[in-house]
Design a protein that fits this description.
Elements: E1 7-14, H1 32-39, E2 42-44, E3 47-48, H2 54-63, H3 67-70, H4 86-92, E4 96-101, H5 145-150, E5 165-168, H6 179-187, H7 222-235, E6 243-252, H8 289-300, E7 308-309, H9 312-342, E8 349-355, E9 366-367, H10 375-378, E10 382-385, E11 394-396, E12 400-401, H11 405-413, E13 436-438, E14 455-460, E15 463-468, E16 475-479, H12 497-513
Parallel strand pairs: 1-6, 1-8, 2-11, 3-12, 4-5, 4-6
Antiparallel strand pairs: 2-10, 7-9, 8-10, 13-14, 14-15, 15-16
Helix pairs in contact: 7-9
Protein backbone atom coordinates (compact mmCIF):
# COMPACT_ATOMS: atom_id res chain seq x y z
CA UNK A 1 0.00 0.00 0.00
CA UNK A 2 1.40 3.41 -0.96
CA UNK A 3 1.88 5.73 2.01
CA UNK A 4 -0.09 8.95 1.74
CA UNK A 5 1.97 12.06 1.00
CA UNK A 6 1.84 14.69 3.76
CA UNK A 7 -0.07 17.93 3.48
CA UNK A 8 1.65 21.12 4.67
CA UNK A 9 -0.09 24.00 6.44
CA UNK A 10 2.42 26.84 6.88
CA UNK A 11 1.34 29.70 9.15
CA UNK A 12 3.32 32.93 9.21
CA UNK A 13 2.91 36.12 11.17
CA UNK A 14 4.71 39.35 10.35
CA UNK A 15 7.14 41.09 12.71
CA UNK A 16 6.37 38.82 15.67
CA UNK A 17 8.89 38.62 18.52
CA UNK A 18 9.79 35.05 19.42
CA UNK A 19 8.68 35.51 23.05
CA UNK A 20 5.29 37.10 22.30
CA UNK A 21 3.53 33.72 22.45
CA UNK A 22 2.33 31.70 25.40
CA UNK A 23 4.27 28.64 24.25
CA UNK A 24 7.50 30.65 24.48
CA UNK A 25 6.84 31.66 28.07
CA UNK A 26 4.82 34.86 27.72
CA UNK A 27 2.44 34.99 30.69
CA UNK A 28 0.16 37.74 29.36
CA UNK A 29 -0.63 37.31 25.67
CA UNK A 30 -3.33 34.73 24.94
CA UNK A 31 -2.46 32.42 22.05
CA UNK A 32 -4.20 29.10 22.81
CA UNK A 33 -4.34 27.84 19.22
CA UNK A 34 -0.70 28.55 18.47
CA UNK A 35 0.22 27.08 21.85
CA UNK A 36 -1.69 23.91 20.93
CA UNK A 37 0.55 23.49 17.88
CA UNK A 38 3.57 23.66 20.18
CA UNK A 39 1.98 21.26 22.70
CA UNK A 40 1.61 18.58 20.04
CA UNK A 41 4.82 19.32 18.16
CA UNK A 42 8.36 20.63 18.39
CA UNK A 43 9.25 24.12 19.57
CA UNK A 44 12.57 25.36 18.24
CA UNK A 45 14.38 27.64 20.68
CA UNK A 46 17.25 28.81 18.47
CA UNK A 47 15.61 29.66 15.14
CA UNK A 48 16.70 32.87 13.38
CA UNK A 49 16.00 35.02 10.38
CA UNK A 50 18.51 34.95 7.55
CA UNK A 51 17.82 38.65 6.99
CA UNK A 52 15.72 40.63 9.54
CA UNK A 53 13.67 42.52 6.92
CA UNK A 54 10.33 41.44 5.39
CA UNK A 55 10.99 40.89 1.69
CA UNK A 56 14.55 39.50 1.94
CA UNK A 57 13.75 36.95 4.61
CA UNK A 58 10.65 35.76 2.75
CA UNK A 59 12.95 35.22 -0.23
CA UNK A 60 15.28 33.18 1.98
CA UNK A 61 12.36 31.06 3.20
CA UNK A 62 11.08 30.47 -0.33
CA UNK A 63 14.40 29.70 -2.02
CA UNK A 64 16.49 28.15 0.74
CA UNK A 65 19.27 30.61 -0.17
CA UNK A 66 20.86 33.52 1.68
CA UNK A 67 20.21 37.03 0.41
CA UNK A 68 23.56 37.48 -1.31
CA UNK A 69 22.81 34.37 -3.37
CA UNK A 70 19.09 34.76 -4.13
CA UNK A 71 19.70 38.47 -4.84
CA UNK A 72 16.88 39.86 -2.68
CA UNK A 73 19.11 41.70 -0.23
CA UNK A 74 16.63 44.42 0.83
CA UNK A 75 13.04 45.55 0.44
CA UNK A 76 12.55 46.70 -3.15
CA UNK A 77 14.26 43.76 -4.87
CA UNK A 78 11.86 40.98 -5.97
CA UNK A 79 12.61 37.28 -6.00
CA UNK A 80 13.86 36.36 -9.45
CA UNK A 81 11.28 34.58 -11.58
CA UNK A 82 14.11 32.17 -12.41
CA UNK A 83 14.35 31.09 -8.75
CA UNK A 84 13.17 27.63 -7.74
CA UNK A 85 10.99 27.74 -4.64
CA UNK A 86 9.92 24.91 -2.37
CA UNK A 87 6.34 25.53 -3.55
CA UNK A 88 7.32 24.99 -7.16
CA UNK A 89 9.18 21.80 -6.26
CA UNK A 90 6.10 20.42 -4.49
CA UNK A 91 3.73 21.58 -7.23
CA UNK A 92 5.81 19.73 -9.83
CA UNK A 93 5.34 16.55 -7.79
CA UNK A 94 1.57 16.77 -7.54
CA UNK A 95 0.90 19.02 -4.54
CA UNK A 96 -1.94 21.52 -4.76
CA UNK A 97 -0.32 24.80 -3.73
CA UNK A 98 -1.87 27.95 -2.28
CA UNK A 99 -0.80 31.13 -0.53
CA UNK A 100 -3.28 33.42 1.22
CA UNK A 101 -2.31 36.73 2.80
CA UNK A 102 0.96 38.60 2.61
CA UNK A 103 3.33 37.27 -0.04
CA UNK A 104 5.91 40.07 -0.51
CA UNK A 105 7.79 38.07 -3.12
CA UNK A 106 7.70 41.21 -5.26
CA UNK A 107 7.66 44.95 -4.56
CA UNK A 108 4.52 46.37 -2.97
CA UNK A 109 5.19 49.97 -4.07
CA UNK A 110 5.97 51.45 -7.49
CA UNK A 111 8.76 53.75 -6.31
CA UNK A 112 11.27 54.14 -9.18
CA UNK A 113 14.75 52.76 -8.77
CA UNK A 114 17.23 55.47 -7.70
CA UNK A 115 19.88 56.87 -9.99
CA UNK A 116 23.28 55.30 -9.45
CA UNK A 117 26.74 56.19 -10.65
CA UNK A 118 29.40 53.64 -11.64
CA UNK A 119 32.74 53.82 -9.84
CA UNK A 120 36.06 54.98 -11.25
CA UNK A 121 37.11 57.54 -13.83
CA UNK A 122 36.13 58.05 -17.47
CA UNK A 123 32.91 58.03 -19.41
CA UNK A 124 29.86 56.06 -18.37
CA UNK A 125 29.45 52.74 -20.23
CA UNK A 126 26.26 52.01 -22.14
CA UNK A 127 25.17 49.58 -19.40
CA UNK A 128 25.81 50.71 -15.85
CA UNK A 129 25.27 47.32 -14.24
CA UNK A 130 27.45 44.25 -14.02
CA UNK A 131 24.38 42.07 -14.64
CA UNK A 132 21.21 42.61 -16.66
CA UNK A 133 18.80 40.93 -14.29
CA UNK A 134 17.16 44.14 -13.04
CA UNK A 135 13.93 42.31 -12.04
CA UNK A 136 11.78 45.10 -13.34
CA UNK A 137 8.81 45.45 -15.70
CA UNK A 138 5.23 44.12 -15.77
CA UNK A 139 6.16 40.60 -14.66
CA UNK A 140 7.61 42.06 -11.47
CA UNK A 141 4.82 44.52 -10.67
CA UNK A 142 2.20 42.03 -9.58
CA UNK A 143 2.06 42.95 -5.88
CA UNK A 144 1.98 46.75 -6.11
CA UNK A 145 -0.67 47.82 -3.60
CA UNK A 146 -1.94 50.81 -5.57
CA UNK A 147 -2.70 48.71 -8.64
CA UNK A 148 -4.97 46.42 -6.62
CA UNK A 149 -6.70 49.38 -4.96
CA UNK A 150 -7.52 50.78 -8.41
CA UNK A 151 -8.45 47.44 -9.97
CA UNK A 152 -9.29 44.64 -7.51
CA UNK A 153 -10.41 42.42 -10.41
CA UNK A 154 -6.85 42.15 -11.69
CA UNK A 155 -5.76 38.74 -12.87
CA UNK A 156 -2.53 37.12 -11.82
CA UNK A 157 -0.48 34.86 -14.09
CA UNK A 158 -0.19 31.46 -12.47
CA UNK A 159 1.67 29.66 -11.10
CA UNK A 160 3.11 32.45 -8.98
CA UNK A 161 6.49 31.30 -7.64
CA UNK A 162 5.04 27.80 -7.52
CA UNK A 163 1.60 28.67 -6.13
CA UNK A 164 -1.49 27.89 -8.22
CA UNK A 165 -3.94 29.47 -5.75
CA UNK A 166 -3.10 33.03 -4.68
CA UNK A 167 -5.05 35.53 -2.57
CA UNK A 168 -3.08 38.68 -1.73
CA UNK A 169 -3.28 40.86 1.37
CA UNK A 170 -0.85 43.71 0.68
CA UNK A 171 0.28 46.15 3.42
CA UNK A 172 -0.68 46.21 7.11
CA UNK A 173 -3.13 47.31 9.77
CA UNK A 174 -6.45 48.43 8.32
CA UNK A 175 -4.91 49.67 5.06
CA UNK A 176 -4.58 46.37 3.23
CA UNK A 177 -5.32 45.84 -0.47
CA UNK A 178 -4.98 42.97 -2.94
CA UNK A 179 -7.54 40.25 -3.58
CA UNK A 180 -8.87 41.26 -0.18
CA UNK A 181 -9.98 44.60 -1.69
CA UNK A 182 -12.71 43.02 -3.80
CA UNK A 183 -13.92 40.88 -0.89
CA UNK A 184 -14.10 43.98 1.31
CA UNK A 185 -15.97 46.09 -1.25
CA UNK A 186 -18.53 43.32 -1.73
CA UNK A 187 -19.31 43.57 1.99
CA UNK A 188 -19.35 47.33 2.51
CA UNK A 189 -20.41 50.17 0.15
CA UNK A 190 -17.59 52.50 1.21
CA UNK A 191 -14.86 50.60 3.09
CA UNK A 192 -12.35 53.43 2.72
CA UNK A 193 -14.52 55.45 5.10
CA UNK A 194 -13.60 52.92 7.79
CA UNK A 195 -9.87 52.77 7.22
CA UNK A 196 -6.86 54.86 8.11
CA UNK A 197 -6.09 57.26 10.97
CA UNK A 198 -8.32 59.98 9.52
CA UNK A 199 -11.37 57.73 10.04
CA UNK A 200 -10.32 56.24 13.37
CA UNK A 201 -12.53 56.11 16.46
CA UNK A 202 -10.01 57.59 18.89
CA UNK A 203 -8.87 61.21 19.12
CA UNK A 204 -5.63 62.20 17.38
CA UNK A 205 -4.37 63.89 20.54
CA UNK A 206 -4.67 60.59 22.45
CA UNK A 207 -2.63 58.57 19.97
CA UNK A 208 0.81 57.06 20.08
CA UNK A 209 2.81 56.95 16.83
CA UNK A 210 1.84 53.98 14.63
CA UNK A 211 -1.40 53.41 16.59
CA UNK A 212 -5.05 54.27 15.97
CA UNK A 213 -8.40 52.71 16.85
CA UNK A 214 -9.64 51.50 13.50
CA UNK A 215 -13.29 51.86 12.55
CA UNK A 216 -12.98 48.69 10.48
CA UNK A 217 -14.87 45.90 12.32
CA UNK A 218 -13.27 42.52 12.83
CA UNK A 219 -15.71 40.82 10.45
CA UNK A 220 -14.25 42.96 7.61
CA UNK A 221 -10.62 42.68 8.69
CA UNK A 222 -7.90 40.99 6.59
CA UNK A 223 -7.46 38.36 9.33
CA UNK A 224 -11.09 37.28 8.84
CA UNK A 225 -10.60 37.24 5.07
CA UNK A 226 -7.53 35.01 5.37
CA UNK A 227 -9.37 32.57 7.64
CA UNK A 228 -12.40 32.38 5.35
CA UNK A 229 -10.28 31.89 2.24
CA UNK A 230 -8.23 29.21 4.01
CA UNK A 231 -11.35 27.28 4.99
CA UNK A 232 -12.63 27.53 1.41
CA UNK A 233 -9.32 26.19 0.08
CA UNK A 234 -9.45 23.25 2.49
CA UNK A 235 -13.08 22.50 1.64
CA UNK A 236 -12.09 22.03 -1.99
CA UNK A 237 -9.28 19.67 -1.07
CA UNK A 238 -9.68 16.06 -2.13
CA UNK A 239 -8.43 13.15 -0.04
CA UNK A 240 -6.15 11.69 -2.70
CA UNK A 241 -3.88 14.62 -3.57
CA UNK A 242 -1.69 16.44 -1.03
CA UNK A 243 -1.68 20.20 -0.54
CA UNK A 244 0.64 22.99 0.55
CA UNK A 245 -1.23 25.98 2.01
CA UNK A 246 0.61 29.06 3.28
CA UNK A 247 -1.38 31.42 5.52
CA UNK A 248 0.56 34.65 5.85
CA UNK A 249 -1.04 37.13 8.26
CA UNK A 250 0.11 40.77 7.90
CA UNK A 251 -0.29 41.28 11.69
CA UNK A 252 1.11 42.19 14.19
CA UNK A 253 3.35 44.37 12.00
CA UNK A 254 2.87 48.11 12.55
CA UNK A 255 0.71 50.15 12.37
CA UNK A 256 -0.95 48.71 15.46
CA UNK A 257 -4.69 48.90 14.73
CA UNK A 258 -6.43 45.78 16.09
CA UNK A 259 -10.19 46.10 15.49
CA UNK A 260 -13.14 45.95 17.84
CA UNK A 261 -12.70 43.95 21.04
CA UNK A 262 -9.04 43.31 20.27
CA UNK A 263 -8.25 47.03 20.65
CA UNK A 264 -8.79 47.04 24.42
CA UNK A 265 -8.42 43.34 25.20
CA UNK A 266 -5.23 44.10 27.14
CA UNK A 267 -4.74 46.82 29.73
CA UNK A 268 -1.55 48.84 29.17
CA UNK A 269 -1.07 48.92 32.94
CA UNK A 270 -0.61 45.12 32.91
CA UNK A 271 2.16 45.15 30.34
CA UNK A 272 5.62 43.96 31.38
CA UNK A 273 8.39 45.96 29.75
CA UNK A 274 11.66 44.32 28.67
CA UNK A 275 14.49 44.38 31.21
CA UNK A 276 16.47 46.73 28.98
CA UNK A 277 13.71 49.27 28.43
CA UNK A 278 15.29 51.91 30.67
CA UNK A 279 18.72 51.61 29.05
CA UNK A 280 18.13 53.42 25.73
CA UNK A 281 20.61 53.07 22.93
CA UNK A 282 21.74 56.63 23.50
CA UNK A 283 23.43 55.34 26.65
CA UNK A 284 25.59 52.89 24.70
CA UNK A 285 28.88 54.74 24.54
CA UNK A 286 30.49 52.07 22.36
CA UNK A 287 28.16 52.57 19.39
CA UNK A 288 29.81 54.06 16.30
CA UNK A 289 28.00 56.82 14.46
CA UNK A 290 26.99 54.47 11.64
CA UNK A 291 25.12 52.27 14.11
CA UNK A 292 23.13 55.21 15.45
CA UNK A 293 21.73 56.23 12.07
CA UNK A 294 18.71 53.90 12.13
CA UNK A 295 17.50 55.30 15.42
CA UNK A 296 18.10 58.92 14.44
CA UNK A 297 15.95 58.41 11.35
CA UNK A 298 13.20 56.77 13.38
CA UNK A 299 13.15 59.37 16.12
CA UNK A 300 12.91 62.09 13.46
CA UNK A 301 9.97 60.34 11.76
CA UNK A 302 8.24 57.82 14.04
CA UNK A 303 5.43 57.40 11.50
CA UNK A 304 7.77 55.74 9.01
CA UNK A 305 9.42 52.28 9.08
CA UNK A 306 12.56 52.97 11.10
CA UNK A 307 13.01 52.07 14.79
CA UNK A 308 12.24 54.87 17.23
CA UNK A 309 12.36 55.46 20.97
CA UNK A 310 9.21 55.72 23.09
CA UNK A 311 8.24 56.65 26.63
CA UNK A 312 7.13 54.04 29.15
CA UNK A 313 3.45 54.97 28.76
CA UNK A 314 3.73 54.81 24.97
CA UNK A 315 5.43 51.44 25.15
CA UNK A 316 2.75 49.98 27.39
CA UNK A 317 0.03 51.05 24.96
CA UNK A 318 1.92 49.69 21.96
CA UNK A 319 2.49 46.38 23.73
CA UNK A 320 -1.20 46.09 24.61
CA UNK A 321 -2.20 46.71 21.00
CA UNK A 322 0.48 44.36 19.71
CA UNK A 323 -0.86 41.62 21.97
CA UNK A 324 -4.39 42.35 20.78
CA UNK A 325 -3.31 41.89 17.16
CA UNK A 326 -1.56 38.62 18.03
CA UNK A 327 -4.60 37.25 19.87
CA UNK A 328 -6.86 38.22 16.97
CA UNK A 329 -4.70 36.23 14.56
CA UNK A 330 -4.70 33.29 16.98
CA UNK A 331 -8.49 33.44 17.17
CA UNK A 332 -8.91 33.37 13.38
CA UNK A 333 -6.29 30.66 13.05
CA UNK A 334 -8.31 28.57 15.47
CA UNK A 335 -11.18 28.51 12.96
CA UNK A 336 -8.86 27.18 10.27
CA UNK A 337 -7.45 24.46 12.52
CA UNK A 338 -10.97 23.45 13.58
CA UNK A 339 -12.03 23.23 9.93
CA UNK A 340 -8.96 21.11 9.16
CA UNK A 341 -10.06 18.67 11.85
CA UNK A 342 -13.70 18.71 10.70
CA UNK A 343 -12.56 17.70 7.21
CA UNK A 344 -10.54 14.83 8.71
CA UNK A 345 -7.32 16.27 7.26
CA UNK A 346 -5.54 16.96 10.52
CA UNK A 347 -3.63 13.71 10.91
CA UNK A 348 -2.31 13.96 7.34
CA UNK A 349 -1.11 17.54 7.71
CA UNK A 350 2.24 18.86 8.87
CA UNK A 351 1.70 22.24 10.56
CA UNK A 352 4.49 24.79 10.67
CA UNK A 353 4.30 28.15 12.45
CA UNK A 354 6.84 30.96 12.11
CA UNK A 355 7.49 34.69 11.79
CA UNK A 356 9.54 36.47 9.15
CA UNK A 357 11.43 38.58 11.73
CA UNK A 358 10.96 40.17 15.13
CA UNK A 359 10.48 43.61 16.67
CA UNK A 360 12.37 45.45 19.42
CA UNK A 361 9.04 45.90 21.23
CA UNK A 362 10.64 47.85 24.04
CA UNK A 363 14.21 46.58 24.00
CA UNK A 364 16.34 49.59 24.93
CA UNK A 365 13.22 51.76 24.78
CA UNK A 366 12.80 51.08 21.06
CA UNK A 367 10.11 49.65 18.75
CA UNK A 368 9.98 48.24 15.20
CA UNK A 369 13.03 46.71 13.47
CA UNK A 370 16.31 47.38 11.62
CA UNK A 371 19.51 48.60 13.21
CA UNK A 372 21.33 46.34 15.67
CA UNK A 373 20.76 42.59 15.74
CA UNK A 374 19.26 42.07 19.17
CA UNK A 375 17.55 38.73 19.79
CA UNK A 376 14.14 40.44 19.70
CA UNK A 377 14.75 41.30 16.03
CA UNK A 378 16.62 38.28 14.62
CA UNK A 379 15.26 35.39 16.69
CA UNK A 380 11.84 34.11 15.67
CA UNK A 381 9.38 31.41 16.75
CA UNK A 382 9.40 28.16 14.83
CA UNK A 383 6.97 25.33 15.55
CA UNK A 384 6.74 22.03 13.69
CA UNK A 385 3.86 19.63 14.32
CA UNK A 386 4.23 16.53 12.22
CA UNK A 387 1.61 14.02 11.12
CA UNK A 388 0.24 11.28 13.34
CA UNK A 389 2.83 8.59 12.71
CA UNK A 390 5.74 11.01 13.13
CA UNK A 391 4.59 13.26 15.96
CA UNK A 392 7.35 14.44 18.27
CA UNK A 393 6.76 16.54 21.37
CA UNK A 394 8.97 18.92 23.25
CA UNK A 395 11.66 21.42 22.39
CA UNK A 396 14.67 21.51 20.12
CA UNK A 397 17.83 23.49 20.83
CA UNK A 398 19.11 22.98 17.29
CA UNK A 399 20.23 26.30 15.82
CA UNK A 400 18.66 26.99 12.43
CA UNK A 401 17.51 29.83 10.20
CA UNK A 402 15.15 30.76 7.38
CA UNK A 403 17.25 29.06 4.69
CA UNK A 404 16.61 25.72 6.46
CA UNK A 405 12.84 25.91 5.99
CA UNK A 406 12.58 24.94 2.29
CA UNK A 407 14.96 21.95 2.58
CA UNK A 408 13.08 20.75 5.68
CA UNK A 409 9.73 20.80 3.86
CA UNK A 410 11.13 19.03 0.80
CA UNK A 411 12.92 16.37 2.82
CA UNK A 412 9.74 15.73 4.80
CA UNK A 413 7.83 15.42 1.51
CA UNK A 414 10.31 12.73 0.46
CA UNK A 415 12.44 14.64 -2.05
CA UNK A 416 16.09 15.48 -2.33
CA UNK A 417 16.99 19.14 -1.97
CA UNK A 418 17.42 21.03 -5.28
CA UNK A 419 20.94 22.05 -6.24
CA UNK A 420 21.80 25.42 -4.79
CA UNK A 421 19.46 25.38 -1.80
CA UNK A 422 21.80 26.11 1.07
CA UNK A 423 19.88 25.13 4.18
CA UNK A 424 19.62 21.83 6.03
CA UNK A 425 16.74 19.72 7.31
CA UNK A 426 16.11 20.91 10.87
CA UNK A 427 14.71 17.48 11.72
CA UNK A 428 17.96 15.72 10.78
CA UNK A 429 19.62 15.18 14.15
CA UNK A 430 22.44 13.18 12.54
CA UNK A 431 23.86 16.22 10.73
CA UNK A 432 25.48 18.90 12.93
CA UNK A 433 23.89 22.32 12.69
CA UNK A 434 26.25 24.95 11.25
CA UNK A 435 26.48 28.49 12.63
CA UNK A 436 23.65 30.85 11.64
CA UNK A 437 24.60 33.71 9.34
CA UNK A 438 22.35 36.79 9.40
CA UNK A 439 22.76 39.29 6.57
CA UNK A 440 21.41 42.84 6.59
CA UNK A 441 22.05 45.71 4.14
CA UNK A 442 21.62 48.31 6.88
CA UNK A 443 19.18 51.17 6.95
CA UNK A 444 21.30 53.65 4.97
CA UNK A 445 20.69 51.78 1.69
CA UNK A 446 17.08 52.96 1.69
CA UNK A 447 18.39 56.47 1.11
CA UNK A 448 21.52 55.56 -0.85
CA UNK A 449 21.66 52.11 -2.51
CA UNK A 450 25.46 52.34 -2.62
CA UNK A 451 25.81 53.05 1.11
CA UNK A 452 28.37 50.89 2.91
CA UNK A 453 26.03 50.16 5.79
CA UNK A 454 25.83 46.36 5.91
CA UNK A 455 25.65 44.59 9.26
CA UNK A 456 26.21 40.84 9.47
CA UNK A 457 25.90 38.54 12.45
CA UNK A 458 26.91 35.02 13.36
CA UNK A 459 24.99 33.07 15.99
CA UNK A 460 26.65 29.90 17.21
CA UNK A 461 26.36 27.78 20.33
CA UNK A 462 24.94 30.51 22.53
CA UNK A 463 27.05 33.38 21.21
CA UNK A 464 26.22 36.29 18.89
CA UNK A 465 28.84 38.28 17.00
CA UNK A 466 28.02 41.25 14.74
CA UNK A 467 30.19 43.25 12.35
CA UNK A 468 29.37 46.63 10.82
CA UNK A 469 30.74 47.47 7.38
CA UNK A 470 31.05 51.19 8.11
CA UNK A 471 32.96 50.65 11.38
CA UNK A 472 35.82 48.18 10.76
CA UNK A 473 37.26 48.57 14.27
CA UNK A 474 33.98 47.92 16.04
CA UNK A 475 31.93 44.82 16.69
CA UNK A 476 29.56 43.12 19.11
CA UNK A 477 30.12 39.87 20.98
CA UNK A 478 27.55 38.51 23.44
CA UNK A 479 27.37 35.40 25.57
CA UNK A 480 23.65 34.73 25.18
CA UNK A 481 23.51 32.16 27.98
CA UNK A 482 25.12 34.36 30.62
CA UNK A 483 23.72 37.60 29.20
CA UNK A 484 20.37 36.87 27.47
CA UNK A 485 19.47 40.57 27.38
CA UNK A 486 22.69 41.37 25.48
CA UNK A 487 23.80 44.17 27.78
CA UNK A 488 27.54 43.36 28.04
CA UNK A 489 29.42 43.71 24.77
CA UNK A 490 32.56 41.56 25.12
CA UNK A 491 34.17 42.68 21.85
CA UNK A 492 37.04 44.45 23.62
CA UNK A 493 37.06 42.23 26.72
CA UNK A 494 40.46 40.46 27.04
CA UNK A 495 38.75 37.56 28.76
CA UNK A 496 36.66 36.92 25.61
CA UNK A 497 39.54 37.27 23.13
CA UNK A 498 39.72 33.55 22.39
CA UNK A 499 35.96 33.34 21.80
CA UNK A 500 36.11 36.41 19.56
CA UNK A 501 38.84 34.80 17.44
CA UNK A 502 36.83 31.56 17.27
CA UNK A 503 33.74 33.44 16.09
CA UNK A 504 35.66 35.38 13.46
CA UNK A 505 37.06 32.15 12.04
CA UNK A 506 33.62 30.49 12.16
CA UNK A 507 32.17 33.50 10.35
CA UNK A 508 34.75 33.27 7.56
CA UNK A 509 34.22 29.53 7.17
CA UNK A 510 30.45 29.91 7.11
CA UNK A 511 30.66 32.53 4.37
CA UNK A 512 32.89 30.18 2.36
CA UNK A 513 30.41 27.33 2.80
CA UNK A 514 27.48 29.48 1.67
CA UNK A 515 28.84 30.05 -1.83
CA UNK A 516 26.44 29.75 -4.76
CA UNK A 517 26.25 26.17 -6.06
CA UNK A 518 23.06 26.53 -8.09
CA UNK A 519 24.58 26.85 -11.56
CA UNK A 520 25.71 23.66 -13.31
CA UNK A 521 28.63 23.55 -15.76
CA UNK A 522 27.48 23.47 -19.38
CA UNK A 523 30.68 21.91 -20.71
CA UNK A 524 33.46 19.70 -19.46
CA UNK A 525 37.14 19.99 -20.20
Amino acid sequence: MTKRKPNFLVIMMDQLRWDHLGCYGNSIVQTPNIDAIADTGLRFDAFYTSNPICQPNRACLATGQISTVNGCRQNGIPISLDSVTYAEALRNEGWRTGIIGKSHFQNVTAIPAPDRKPAGQGEEPSDLRARRDQRDGPDYGLEVKGKWARDPDRTLPLPYYGFDHVRFCISHGDQVDGHYTKWLRERHPDPDSLRGPENALDKPEDRVAQCWQSALPEELHPNRYIAEEACAFLSEQGRDDPFLLVLSFPDPHHPFTPPGRWWDMYDPADMILPETFNTPLSQRNDLPEAARQAYRMGDADPHSHWPFHVTEDEMRKILALNYGSISFVDHELGKVLEHLRALDLDDDTVICFMSDHGDYMGDHGTVLKMGLHYQSVIRVPFLWRDTAERRAHGTSARQASAIDFAPTVLQRAGFKVPLGMQGLDVLDDDTPAPPVLVEDPGIAVFADPDARSSIVSLVDQGWRMSLLEAAPDWGELYDLRADPDETRNLWNDPGAAAQKLHMLEAFARRQIALRDLSLCPTARA
